[in-house]
Amino acid sequence: MKAWRISFAASGILLGLFGVFRLLTEVPVGNLVVLAGWMIGAVVIHDGILSPAVIAVGWFIGRAVPARGRRYVQGGLIAGGLITAVAIPLILRAGQEPPSKAILQQSFGGNLTILLGLVAAASLVLYALRVARDTRNTRSAKTAAGAEPSPERL
Amino acid sequence: MLAIFFGTCFVTGLLSHYQYQPWAWLPEPASPVWLYRVTQGTHVITGIATLPLVLVKLWSVYPNLFRWPAVTSLKHAAERLSVFVLVASALVQLTTGFLNVLNWYAWPWDFVAVHRFLAYVLIGSILLHVGLKLPDIRYGLQARLPQADVLTETPWDQNPLAHSNAGEVPPPPTPALTRRGVLVAAGAGVGAVVVTSIGQTVAPLEPVGLLAVRQWNKGPQRVPVNTTAQQAGVQAVAVDQRWTLQVNGRTPFTVTLAELDDLARSEADLPITCVEGWSVGAHWRGIPLLDLVARAGGDAGSRVEVISLQQGSQFARSTVLGPQVSAALLATHLNGERLNLDHGYPLRLIAPNRAGVLNTKWLARIEVV
Description:
- The complex is a heterodimer of chains A (154) and B (369).
- Chain A has 154 residues and is an all-alpha fold.
- Chain A has 4 helices and no strands.
- In chain A, helix 3 runs antiparallel to helix 4.
- The longest helix of chain A has 40 residues, at 108-147.
- Chain A is extended.
- Chain B folds into 2 domains: 2-208, no CATH class; 222-368, Alpha-Beta Complex (Sulfite Oxidase, Chain A, domain 2).
- Chain B has helices at residues 2-20, 35-61, 74-101, 111-142, 179-197, 229-232, 235-238, 257-263, 289-295, 323-327; strands at residues 244-248, 253-256, 266-273, 279-288, 304-308, 317-320, 329-334, 337-338, 348-350, 363-368.
- In chain B, the strands form 2 sheets. A 5-stranded mixed β-sheet of chain B has the order 2-1-10-5-6. In chain B, strands 3, 4, 7, 8 and 9 form a 5-stranded antiparallel β-sheet that branches.
- In chain B, helix 1 runs antiparallel to helix 4.
- Classes of the chains: A mainly alpha (154), B alpha+beta (369).
- The interface between A and B is large, with 75 and 84 residues.
């Protein structure tokens, strides 16, 4: 284990330093400053804005959505949120290049709506199945209780 | 999973870099013709799938950001710094890679160089991270889910707070999505992204390409274009009636388009593959490059430079080496029609297993070395 850990860490450090060396020697200083800004900005946007926003949504769901439906709302939002994250740049960038490049010629806003509709439908179907299963279980529990009264069920 | 995805991107990325700067003693092979199509398609779709996956991963470890005390030792500080480098380089690498596919150049630097150097930094920091976390990884892969508690900064066996050290602890009741539920939902989201994006590479999935960046059937002659004649500034010179192809070698000569048309009897089915991940199979007609090379006094072992009418672009010329010299075609026709101006009229290079941008368009001159 220790040998593995050391070889992973050592090769990682060497490769990383090689990358830093190539960046420092081959990229103009002005661009490196902008690159550093991108890297710090990416972490700040993710840790400072995106993650707290997701926590806020989760907190709201915890208060507003009853326990039985909660996991279906959460699951739908996770899947839909990830799809939206990829689709947003497409929407922002659509139609900005000459048509013969055949790039970003779709109505991605409409396409995203279709995909999110499918995600919502799938979540609803799973929720409906859960409700149906609960109802059936309650009914069979009642029948069992009626035929053979047991103290635990009363 | 993320390690596999990042590793795949790294290896296919290096293969793509080799397309641009091969060693003279080890030229790119000419077969299989679809090799670059597969490796670069994999590179781009894996990168796109990794973007949402990284968001899920970072979400699951987000609480660790607020561990207190923030830094317990110099070693701990170094580890947290390496995690910062890992997270920052991963986010920037994936975002800029995706924006580059969209032709959205929102940065001042040379994308190709920085993407490659940052990949070394990213893969290096992943290797370091794996080395540091190896005991946790091993424990996490062995443990059954309800007992596992791997999201700790100290190895689990030194951590008194880990479930596993407190004996059998029942998992906390979750009146919400379980860990497995999160994985299923994230898998569904990432899967939907992959299926609706990959139509730009895998033709049968084009009809469901709701998030596909390129649609090959919308391009002229059902092939997309990466640089148009207007962007290359060749609209006037490429359609000039006096155009001729200059071939330099031991016995230099020039040919007109009419003469080339008489010679254009060879046909080939070759895909055109862009570094941005899209690709499409196409039917080409033209003259084998080797025919003109031989007429200029060269042979299959020659190094051939093809030079475009385009000015001032690093891709206005490219080198054909090794097996590709015999396999390359100088195309006059595409999918049964005269080559469209945006596809390189009057004459372009097309070779198997070759990055699209190296299949030089609007040819003016060929140098046989």
